[in-house]
Amino acid sequence: MIQALAFYLFAAIVVASAVMVILSRNPVHSVLWLILAFFNAAGLMVIVGAEFIAMLLVIVYVGAVAVLFLFVVMMLDIDFAAMRAGLVKNFPLGIAMALILLAELGLALGVYGAGGLELGDAAANDAAQNLGESNIEAIGRLLYGRYILLFEIAGIILLVAMIGAIVLTHRAPKPGARGRQDIGKQISRRPDEATVMKRPTIGEGVEL
Amino acid sequence: MTDFFQSFGLPYEAAWTVATIAGILLIALPLMLAVAMVIYVDRKVLGAVMLRRGPNVVGPFGLLQSFADGLKVFLQETIIPSAANKGIFLLAPIITFTVALAAWAVIPFDAGVVLADINVGLLYILAISSLGVYGVVMSGWASNSKYPFFSAMRAAAQMISYEVSIGFILVCVVLWAGTFNMSGIVEAQRGHGLGIVNGFFFNPLMFPMFVVFFISALAETARAPFDLTEAESELVAGYQTEYSSMSFALFWLGEYANILLMCSLCTLLFVGGWLPPVEWAPLYYVPGIVWFLLKTFGFFLVFSWIWATVPRYRYDQLMRLGWKVFLPMSLLFVAAISGYLMATGHFG
What we know:
The structure holds two protein chains of two kinds. Chain A is mostly helical. Among the domains of chain A are: 1-78, NADH-ubiquinone/plastoquinone oxidoreductase chain 6, subunit NuoJ (Four Helix Bundle (Hemerythrin (Met), subunit A)), CATH 1.20.120.1200; 80-109; 135-166. In chain A, 75% of the residues lie in helices and 0% in strands. Chain A has nine helices and no strands. In chain A, helix 2 (27-47) runs antiparallel to helix 3 (51-75). Chain A is elongated, with a radius of gyration of 29 Å. By secondary structure, chain B is mainly α. Chain B has helices at residues 2-6, 12-49, 65-75, 86-102, 121-142, 146-177, 182-188, 207-220, 232-235, 245-270, 281-284, 288-309, 315-343. Chain B is globular. In chain B, 44% of the residues are buried.
């Protein structure tokens, strides 16, 4: 009873906020609606008992990805007139993509109705549930056991992407350029080597 | 507590609902009281360090100062700037405040005294605390004013940077405790040092992680020396500049509730939560909640001590500390600790 109520509440909010992402005029509002949608999707995950996935959804998407999203969108200077002018030009493309998505959704529902794919090892799944394993242990067993190769490959790809991003934005300092800080040098400076105490006599000034 | 309400003849679901609401109130109301007292302590400590008296007029020793301030703020007019984005402007303090309260759901105050004893308690806290940045970012943007906007930009970058190293430190704790459940983490610290000392704090591999965690907690709650989001010498009052009356008070309460949360996290993750520091007879008979509150308060005193002592960081120094010092360091310790645990056969 409570579960059903919670499900319909979360599901309704997800759908409504997803609609609002598209409908809102202000891009910052769109991102905030998107965050609400992520958050409620995490709520749905909790209801089906996948609390680990739910928490990861919030930590990764809401806590990191969406913050950067918001960060960028907030700094954009958007010309709304220009955006609406592009609407007519992009309309056919948008319709085509929407149709493809709709067709895929229908296909997925059809396959689901026909019994669906047998994914993974059903016996192992049952065994894990009988053991009373927590989500985290079950996912860990799969990621670091059966799918270790795929997991490692995904990790390597991410690492390469990260190094690529760093290389693209990194600029080597010009030789002899001023204004670069050597933090170690700054920190290891002591008062007695940075300052000089003088006792000036009146009318004569100081020679440094 | 559900059993208690069931004994009045309520059906299970009704009893559960009543018990949960009672539990929420039992946490939220004392928390608000604690926040009021802690603000007083903060000002008193700051005064003592600066050789002033601090608040000393309202009530005995000025104890009621925070309540007087609360009343004053409550009676003030809420001013909304005409150029502000009204909905988000009003939503931002509410989000800050709610998020600061929500994280307390999984904090165990004593053995078994916890509102939601969930398996992923630590991840829940990480998830909720990562939401805290939205209050700041939204208020900064919605104010439609330059200084709050700068503050919001700073807050977004700062909180993301330090959350990464906090995440790795939590991985170290989880590796050693073998669970994400908060109560389980505390129990794993029982007799951790030589069989009698409780807490990961006394572990030579974990102690550097504790120091990094504490400093990251300062940065995460935007306390001095990392209070760049409300640096009064540069940004007026940062993201709070355009706020007045209750909407300002909500930021204030949320901020201190977050500070208390970080103090209690230090307590739970590193110094053994409700366990006495050492398993000796007289210490053992003190109720667990007393230990928990004492330790949390101790950490809060360190927070205000640091506030009174240390000058503010420069922004590039802050970023450097987060990404170039803490992140590699905590990564190294994750590797070292998991290596040590594998080598000693900790997991059997």
